[in-house]
Design a protein that fits this description.
The chain is of the alpha+beta class. Among the domains are: 158 residues, Beta Polymerase, domain 2 (2-Layer Sandwich), CATH 3.30.460; 72 residues, Hydrophobic Seed Protein, CATH 1.10.110; 209 residues, no CATH class. It has 27 helices and 14 strands. An eight-stranded mixed beta sheet has the order 1-8-7-2-3-6-5-4. The longest helix has 113 residues. The relative contact order is 0.08. This is Poly A polymerase head domain-containing protein.
């Protein structure tokens, strides 16, 4: 009997291969990050083909900021490493070269690596290749067949400004469809991590699944339990740290993956869906999503800290005042301001079940300090549920009818560092100083991205305060933000209807909890059903309009009073100014001679120091000028390239709509 044909191999139809001019679909060279462009340029000057590939091309087409820029080249890994001063080869199964340049890391892969790894597949494919085929097309096509999804198999050549599509990726992008390159079951059996990657991409871009892909995800979801813990942590971090945590959690729950990765949280969500109670967990991640994004991600310690905080609350419900104080001290960075704020806002009577046990406003500072420190200790202890199987099983006794695989994947070093965030609160909370000082209420995303403890504590407190202030109804202004993306009720509707909310552009404003901060108007929004995404409709309530009208009238009165005072004082001010000018002129004449005499003596003593300082400044300027020179050269080349390709496009460009405009 003849062997069954490989389902991954299909007849090759080269007529479907496409080469699209980048300018016609809204992509210009200026959209490429400067470090990536340097890498591409160096490889190109070395005589090698170099392309942008994968998710960065997809995101550029969708007019989004890529998470990173991946480069692929015809050079082998050793040749790549020789071209750069700081580069190392990493990985065993699919090794790549990591290039450190301009403070960024660019991952560069080689066509040769994939071809060598899949030698057997290459032999099988060779029989399907047409006799007349361009060699460069053939190299790109072979590599594209090893990628996970069609929308990730696109190549962008920045030197010819062409995009190459061999698998219908552009068509799938237009229809916002996620589809595997080969039959989905075969693809996920080849690498089950593609299931998590597919859910992550769909959550961030609001994509739907092809029927084949969706069915395979359901059938093979259990296989992710066999993945390496490092790989699991990597994928989950991409889901929760880049602005699509709520959508990712919803999809993980939908495809029965949350009970494998985070069984306690899966059981909590299932119970609340059954009782139709508001979920504090989803509110926390909803507020996290408002702050972070692909170009401003957070370190994993932030979402691990949120899980620890929530675990401690579910297993040990607290007085609302304790939670307010705990979060407020993290946010304000000291005990005194934190307590004052907490006592003011605890009157809101926020009710989350089972997290909040009671409401009290009469606790002494001493008793409150003890309870907050005790709760901080419970938060630290809850990290064991994320790192130890025995602790996980013990906590799951709260949900006896929920499945638990016993899988834990959070690295112990990550858990240890996150637990350290609360050390100061446990030791002596009344003398707690965050160390962030009175910095701007705006988030420092560089520090947040590298896991700076002070910045992480600040943002953690901010998220908890926003969750508490909004409450189960979510009808309050947020901390440091003027807009709301969705009503918090959307989290329950998403979980019940398997819908994904559309993302909005984030705008960061001074905090509402800082005295001079700006408070935005309250806005209500509807969640409208849609196949690909939801749209938000904003309304201002009558009460808010009345309040605004009253404030406007009061403001008008104060303006009139200030205007009268200004007019009456104008004459006096002008007289004083004239007198002060005359006095200054007399004094300046008297001291001019003295200053001129002393200049010579001062110069003798300071000349050596000045020379040293000038030399240092010249060196720094020289370095800056070199960087600026590189940027100028790059911009000039970008300008030349874009003008050159504008001429090629001509009238044809005017008749073709930009692909990126379809997704705005």
């Amino acid at each position: 009997m003849a062997p069954a044909p490989n389902p991954a191999l299909r007849p090759i139809d080269t007529s479907k291969w496409k080469k699209i001019q980048a300018s016609k679909v809204g992509i210009s060279l200026s959209m490429i990050s400067f470090p990536s462009w340097i890498v591409l340029k160096i490889l190109h000057k070395g005589g090698f083909e170099a392309y942008l590939v994968g998710g960065c091309v997809r995101d550029l087409l969708l007019n989004r900021t890529p998470k990173d820029f991946d480069v692929i080249t015809t050079a082998n890994l050793k040749q790549i490493r020789k071209k750069f001063h700081r580069a190392e080869i990493i990985g065993k199964r699919f090794p790549i070269c990591r290039v450190h340049i301009k403070g960024s890391i660019i991952e560069v892969s080689s066509f040769e690596t994939v071809a060598r790894h899949d030698a057997d597949k290459e032999k099988a494919l060779s029989s399907l290749i047409p006799k007349i085929c361009d060699e460069k097309d053939l190299i790109r096509w072979r590599n594209s067949r090893n990628r996970d999804f069609t929308i990730n198999s696109l190549f962008f050549d920045p030197f010819t400004c062409n995009i190459y599509d061999y698998n219908g990726g552009m068509s799938d992008l237009k229809s916002l469809k996620l589809r595997t390159l080969i039959p989905a079951h075969a693809s996920f059996q080849e690498d089950c991590a593609r299931i998590l990657r597919g859910l992550r991409i769909a959550a961030r871009l609001c994509l739907s699944f092809s029927k084949d892909t969706e069915r395979a995800m359901y059938d093979l979801s259990a296989s992710i339990g066999g993945l390496d813990k490092f790989r699991l942590m990597l994928e989950v971090n991409y889901m929760l740290s880049y602005g699509a945590a709520v959508q990712s959690i919803c999809l993980l729950q939908r495809f029965n993956l949350l009970n494998i990765l985070l069984p306690f949280q899966a059981a909590y969500i299932s119970q609340h869906r059954a009782t139709k109670n508001s979920m504090m967990l989803m509110k926390l991640f909803f507020n996290l999503d408002k702050l972070v994004s692909c170009d401003h991600p957070a370190d994993s310690s932030l979402w691990v800290g949120l899980l620890m905080f929530h675990l401690a609350l579910v297993n040990n419900p607290q007085d609302a005042l304790v939670i307010w104080t705990f979060a407020s001290v993290l946010y304000h960075g000291n005990w005194k301001e934190g307590v004052e704020f907490a006592r003011e806002y605890t009157k809101l009577q926020v009710k989350f079940v089972p997290e909040i046990s009671e409401f009290s406003e009469t606790k002494s500072d001493e008793d409150l300090a003890k309870e907050v420190a005790q709760f901080a200790s419970l938060v630290q202890d809850s990290v064991g549920v994320l790192t130890e199987t025995s602790n996980l099983f013990e906590s799951m006794s709260r949900y006896p009818f929920s499945a638990c695989s016993g899988l834990v994947f959070v690295p112990k070093i990550t858990a240890k560092n996150t637990a350290k965030l609360f050390d100061l609160m446990v030791e002596d909370i009344r003398s707690f100083i965050n160390g962030r000082g009175r910095m701007s209420p705006e988030i420092n995303f560089h520090l947040l991205g590298i896991g700076d403890p002070c910045e992480t504590r600040f943002v953690l407190g901010k998220i908890i305060l926003e969750t508490m202030k909004a409450g189960p109804r979510g009808d309050a202004t947020e901390i440091g933000n003027d807009e709301k993306d969705l009503q918090p009720k959307a989290t329950e509707e998403i979980l019940s209807n398997n819908e994904i909310p559309g993302k909005k552009v984030k705008k960061y404003a001074p905090s509402a909890f800082i005295p001079d901060g700006n408070r935005g108007m309250l806005k209500k929004q509807k969640l409208v059903d849609d196949d690909t995404a939801t749209k938000n409709q904003e309304m201002v309530t009558k009460d808010e309009l009345n309040d605004l009208a009253e404030k406007h009238q009061e403001f008008g009165k104060t303006c009139k009073l200030s205007e009268n005072k200004t007019n009456s004082m104008q004459g006096k001010i002008s007289e004083k100014e004239e007198k002060s000018k005359k006095d200054k002129e007399k004094k300046s004449r008297k001291h001019t001679k003295v200053v001129e005499k002393s200049k010579h003596h001062i110069a003798l003593h300071t000349v050596s120091k000045k020379q040293q300082r000038v030399v240092r400044e010249l060196n720094l300027r020289e370095e800056d000028e070199m960087d600026n020179l590189e940027k100028v050269l790059w911009k000039e080349e970008v300008k030349e390239r874009t003008e050159e390709h504008k001429g090629r496009a001509g009238k044809e460009r005017n008749g073709v709509s930009s692909l990126s405009s379809l997704f705005r």
